[in-house]
Specification:
four-stranded mixed beta sheet, globular, DNA_methylase_N6_adenine_CS, N5-glutamine_MTase
């Protein structure tokens, strides 16, 4: 978070940073939400790269409900906190696009939901606008 805040300052960007569990610390309306929540299922532990298993904190990687629990919570909370023209950008696991899209379509039926691919052609982002 410190590096992001420093970058924001150096660029003169008007950005508010919040540290907490999903959208819990946010009490105002937000225009843009960018999130990279933990999204890996516990079932994937055995197939993960050894360097990830040794050095990355599990709290930053794993989520309940097949890795979808944080998306479900964010979608529910964002209904109340996202401004009328607000946008959501979420990093997703390579095989979670359809499930995350469905979660947000349920909570935001009148918004457009798109899946975006990375340079390797894998779906790695969901955009809500």
């Amino acid at each position: 978070m410190e590096i992001a805040q420093l970058n924001s300052y150096m660029l003169g960007a008007d950005v508010n940073f919040y540290l907490g569990n999903t959208l819990d610390p946010i009490s105002t309306s937000i225009d843009i939400l960018i999130a990279n929540p933990p999204y890996i299922s516990q079932d994937e532990w055995s197939v993960m790269d050894e360097s990830v298993r040794r050095f990355e904190p599990k709290l930053a990687l794993f989520a309940e409900n097949d890795g979808l629990a944080n998306y479900q919570k964010i979608a529910q909370q964002a209904q109340e906190k996202l401004s009328h023209h607000g946008k959501i950008f979420l990093e997703i696991g390579f095989n979670q696009g359809a499930a995350v899209e469905q979660i947000f379509q349920k909570e935001f039926p009148y918004r457009k939901i798109h899946r975006k691919k990375d340079l390797a052609g894998q779906e790695r982002m969901v955009l809500v606008h």
